[in-house]
């Protein structure tokens, strides 16, 4: 091995630019199937006749899948190379999008279930793969990966209403996102075919499972911070357009404001981990970003209409940074790819199980109170709880297992 050659890059037998391109293509597919639901939620309710509670369940289902299916990912990665597991997850994602476009309520929920499971498995495997492939720059690459999620989500939420108006169907407005998933499948199939003639095609090998994380306080702090900040994010994804419409904002503008907020996340998705690693730990950066998240959300809920765009931007900057740092903490708190892979599974299982309650809980609070004040209070309390968890998770420590 030549000095200075990254071990992870050698392990997968691919140049860094190709790994980054693959990461971008996969990441860009992990949010559109989810981000199109919120702008179209009222239309879906009107056409299908589902209740507010059912609409909340539809928004919650993918997030619940993120937690429920996460423990399965490491097991699959021990049976197959993780890159192949990710490939089949994208195939499942394509199938879920297609199923959801069929008429009826059952295909809507079944397709959403498949989409959530596919995204869950993929997101669980990626931090370990990033730590393995880019051991010297995992935090920065995590910021890049997080930004690709934001790009996909911002684009999908921005065009959801225009696509629905253009095609005359909310199902078609969601079905178009099968195209980028199909592109990834085709590209992966071509790449596999091109290297099939090689005697020994190198593949990433994810290390064995790290035991003892459930008894580690730092691992729990990372998982709780990740889950609580995700609860804030999915509450916004699910209900921000509806909340704005209830304030008298036009549906198209409400969808645009959500897209603007998600677009603003790109700035702190890329810069958040980099800035956080410039100081001795990540706590102060997280506190500032959580404060921006609270300020932006309350601005959307109570601020003047003329300032809604500013509130949406502040909200996006806060949430983009808290999310990207949450992903970065998995690799920063892990001494190696072994721990990173296992911590990713634990964080996603515990964290997203917590986050899954947010969209449904917000919907039930809104239905019970017939306004958004209780939701606003719950949002602030959840942000405070996230800051408490960050007080431990953001320390400059690494998980030490026996």
From TrEMBL:
InterPro entries: MFS, MFS_Cyanate_Porter, MFS_trans_sf
Membrane-crossing residue ranges in chain numbering: 12-30, 50-73, 85-102, 108-130, 142-163, 175-193, 213-240, 252-272, 284-304, 310-332, 339-360, 372-393
One Pfam family hit: MFS_1
Coiled coil: none
Keywords, comma-separated and alphabetical: Membrane, Transmembrane, Transmembrane helix
Name of the featured protein: MFS transporter, CP family, cyanate transporter
Origin species: Noviherbaspirillum suwonense
Native organism taxonomy: Bacteria, Pseudomonadati, Pseudomonadota, Betaproteobacteria, Burkholderiales
